[in-house]
Amino acid sequence: MKGLKIAALALTGLALAALGVGGSFAQSPKAGQVQAAPNTEDGADAYRLDSGDKVRITTFGEPTLTGEFVVDGQGVIALPLAGEIPAKNLTVRQLEEKIEKTLVDGQLFLHPQVSAEVITYRPFFILGEVNKPGEYPYSSGLTVMRAIATAGDYTYRANKKRVLIKSANSPGEKETELTPSTLVHPGDTIRIKERFF
To answer: pLDDT tens, 176-187?
Structure first.
């Protein structure tokens, strides 16, 4: 009888282990079940704010500190009560933390909860051998080919194989091969060169 009880307990333990209950066995995802993405820094989190970006800031429970704000030419955001918040070169998450710290340090709130998101990116610029050079609004995932189309396409003298791109934070232009996947970032200046033949 004692042997039967031990055998029954052993079978119960094996069944529970197979189900992942009370043990260290991980359950494999079922067919069609979506697993959570790992918590890594993606493109949105890596984006650095600069002059011309428009940000929506939400301070929960405080409508006067909620609204749309533009990063000005000095790289700051002017918030009611909090004053000027330096935003240039910060990620959105860093901006949230900076605003929360400013509100706590200024003894305005004990435990503020701030959320921020970019709603309008700073523009890009396109020069050289395009029909309508100038400043254009940036949209997420913009490629050089789409930027050229926005600027009225190439002129007949344009070099369609190479492009010069100057990013907002770099001192000079970088020449790169022009492919359908060549990306433009907010604040970039694109220059389409003239071909030699």
So the answer is: 999 999 999 999
